[in-house]
What we know:
Layout: H1 3-10, E1 13-19, E2 25-37, E3 40-47, H2 49-52, E4 57-66, E5 71-80, E6 87-88, E7 95-98, H3 100-104, E8 110-113, E9 117-118, E10 134-139, E11 153-158, E12 172-175, E13 186-192, E14 195-216, E15 221-238, H4 240-246
Amino acid sequence: MNISQEKSLLHCTSMIHTEDSYFNSEQATCFFLKRTVGNTEHHYLVTCAHVLKNAVRIHIYLDYYHRETDRIEHYKKITLAPKDAVRIHPDCDLALLCIDSIRNKNTDSDYYLYSPVDINTIPDEFDTFSSFQPILMLGYPSGIHDSTTNLPIARTGITATPLYSSYKGKPEFLINIPFLNGSSGSPVFAIKEDIPYLIGIEYSKLMEKVTLDKLEARLYRSKKVTRELETGLGIAIRADQILVLLSSSFHDKDL
């Protein structure tokens, strides 16, 4: 992967803040995707369904370039009111919405600096990847990011289960990158022959139920207690589910 591709990937994500009708807020990660239908290019915001499902306001943050002053305005806040424009996957924790309105605000002199991932980088087949595939994930774990330049955090690891093998019968796979709050919606890439392929979207952590003996000191007896322990593994939805979502009977609604 060359330097130009690396810089492009660094601008494919945004931190996302959502608010519901009760003013409860949530922070997560989203990324941008583009596809061409006929002669028209459409842009989408992709994240997890649990992030967008009840949102009445969505805030994302992009860099904005002013050509006249040759200046970049970092961390420019954009507020969206999705209403019924959000598409929710019926079976996966995956959602998207069309954001052509943001792209349409760009002019020759002033424009938002974001680089949507091309839909064609989603693999047609996953059995050509290694069973222990090196991966790259971009996002905002625990809200960590460069607040000056608005750049995300890059983390690397390998797949913990093969991409071609659906984990527990679902279009998912495990990754050796721990899930932290704020990582929901982080894109996962596999670099193959210097091409970054979009292979997944992290949405949760893998927990393991463990039964322990807890000693009740006063009674000198133990009882069984079940607890969930973190495994250090993340769960990712396979990226081909984006294609399933886009092929559903929805019309793109420009926000």
